[in-house]
Amino acid sequence: MKRALLLFFAAGFIVSATAQLRPFLNNPQSPVKALKPVAQMGGEAVGVQTPNTTVASDATLADEVIMTTTYDLQTNSTNQQRMFRYDDGTMAGVAIFSHDNSGSFPERGTGYNYFDGTSWGTQPTTRIEATTRTGWPAYAPLGPNGEIVVAHSSGTLPLYINRRDIRGTGAWTQTELAAPVDASGLLWPRMVTSGDDHMSVHVFALTAPTGNGGVVWNDMDGALVYNRSLDGGDTWDGWVLMDGMTSSEYLGFGGDTYAWAQPVGNTLAFVVGDSFNDEFIMKSTDNGDTWTKTIIWDCPYDFWAGGDTTGDFYNSDGSSAAAIGPDGKVHVLFGFGRGNGDEAGNKYWTINNDGLIYWNEDMPELPQVMDPDELFASGNYIGWVPDTNVFYIPTDQYAFYYGSMSSMPTLVVDDANQVFAFWSGMTINQDPDNFLLRHIFARASVDGGATWRDNIYDVTGEFVQQWTEFAYPTVASQTTYDKIYLIDQDDDLAGVYLKSSNSGYQGQMEITNNNITLMEVDKNDIIEWGVGVNNKPAETFTVAQNYPNPVTGRSVISVKLTQPGNLSMSIVNVVGQQVMRLEKGTVNTGNQQFVVDGSTLPAGIYFYTVTVNKQSITKRMIVE
Question: Smaller CB count within 10 Å for the chain: N or C?
Answer without folding.
Answer: N
